[in-house]
Design goal:
single chain, Rossmann fold, six-stranded mixed β-sheet, 10 helices, 12 strands, binds 2'-monophosphoadenosine-5'-diphosphate
C-alpha cells in the first residue's frame, strides 16, 4: 500500500481523503490517503517526518503552507515555479522533494467542464494572494482579451500584473480602479469565509457574466448570492476545482486520470 496525505492547519474538514479514496476505488489503486494536521511553526521538520517515518510517497498541501512548502522544495515544475506556491509533493526515491501546483489546472478544467470559453473574453480576477497568483498563468493560456486583477490592497494587484505581464494583457489595481463589465468574474479572495463580498462596483456584472467563487460551502457563498442578485448567466462554486486539482495530483502520483464527475456528484449529494 502506497501512502499519501493532505497536510494543513486546520485540516479536519478536508474533503481530500474522501476524494482520493474514491479515485483509488475507481481505478483499483492500493493506496491510503489521510489528513494530517501539521504545527504552524515546523513545516520543514514535518516534511522530513512524513517522508522518513511515515514513509509517504506524496502529499497535498493546503492552507497555510503552500508558499512555505514552495520555498522548501528541492525541485519544482514550471507551473509551480511561476505560481509561487505548491499544493502537491512527490517524495522522490533519492530523498528529494518535488513540488507541483495543480490548482490552476484544476480551475481551468472545471471551467472547461462548464463549457466556459476564455478566449477573447474580459476576465476579472478578484484577490492578489496565493490563491489568485496560482491561477494567473493557467488562465492566460486561453488567450483572454484582458485579465484585470482587482484587490483590496491595490499595490499587491499591480505587482502581480507586472510579474505576469509577459503572458498577455494583464492589468491590476484596487477595487475603485475597476471599470466596465466582465465576461468572467473569479473570486479568489478569502472574503467569503467572513461572509463578505469584495467592495466592487455593480457595473462589473451583466446578464451574460459568468461568476466563479473559488470557495465553496454547503450553501451559496456571499459572492455567489451577490452575483445571483445581479442576474448573471451562471454562478459556479469551487467544489469542481477542488475535485479537479485532486485529480491532477492523483495523475502525478499514479499516472491515471480518474473520473471526476462521478466524485463531484457524490460530494454534492453529501453536502446537501
Ligand atoms: P490565499 O492564499 O487564500 O490567497 P492570502 O494570500 O492571505 O490567502 O490572500 C487573501 C486574499 O483575500 C487577499 O487578496 C486579500 O486582500 P488584501 O490583499 O487586501 O488583504 C483578500 N481578502 C481577504 N478578506 C477580504 C475581504 N473581506 N474583502 C476583500 N478582500 C479580502
Amino acid at each position: 500500500t502506497d501512502k499519501y496525505a493532505v497536510i494543513g492547519h486546520p485540516i479536519k474538514h478536508s474533503k481530500s481523503p474522501f476524494i482520493h479514496a474514491e479515485f483509488a476505488k475507481q481505478s483499483q489503486q492500493d493506496i491510503e490517503y489521510t489528513a494530517i494536521e501539521v504545527p504552524l511553526e515546523s513545516l520543514a521538520s514535518s516534511l522530513q517526518q512524513l517522508r522518513d517515518i511515515l514513509k509517504l510517497k506524496g502529499i497535498n498541501i493546503t492552507v497555510p503552507f503552500k508558499e512555505q512548502a514552495w520555498a522548501l522544495a528541492d525541485s519544482l515544475s514550471d507551473r509551480a515555479q511561476r505560481a509561487g506556491a505548491i499544493n502537491t509533493v512527490i517524495f522522490e526515491s533519492d530523498g528529494t522533494i518535488y513540488g507541483d501546483n495543480t490548482d490552476g489546472i484544476g480551475l481551468c478544467r472545471d471551467l472547461e467542464n462548464h463549457h466556459i470559453s476564455l478566449k477573447d473574453k474580459r476576465i476579472l480576477l478578484i484577490g492578489a494572494g496565493g490563491a489568485a497568483r496560482g491561477v494567473i498563468a493557467p488562465l492566460m493560456t486561453y488567450q483572454p482579451a484582458e485579465l484585470f486583477i482587482a484587490n483590496r490592497t491595490a499595490s499587491k494587484a499591480t505587482q502581480l500584473a507586472d510579474l505576469f505581464s509577459d503572458l498577455g494583457i494583464i492589468k491590476g489595481g484596487g477595487f475603485t480602479d475597476v471599470s466596465g463589465h466582465f465576461d468572467i468574474i473569479i473570486n479568489a479572495t478569502a472574503a467569503s469565509l467572513q461572509d463578505e463580498v469584495p467592495d466592487l462596483p455593480e457595473s462589473i456584472f451583466t446578464e451574460k457574466s459568468c461568476c466563479y467563487d473559488m470557495m465553496y460551502a454547503d450553501r451559496d457563498t456571499a459572492f455567489i448570492k451577490w452575483a445571483k442578485q445581479h442576474k448573471v448567466s451562471q454562478t459556479i462554486d469551487g467544489l469542481g476545482m477542488l475535485v479537479e486539482q485532486a485529480a491532477e495530483a492523483f495523475y502525478l502520483w499514479r499516472h491515471i486520470r480518474p473520473d471526476t464527475q462521478a466524485v463531484l456528484q457524490q460530494l454534492r449529494e453529501n453536502i446537501k
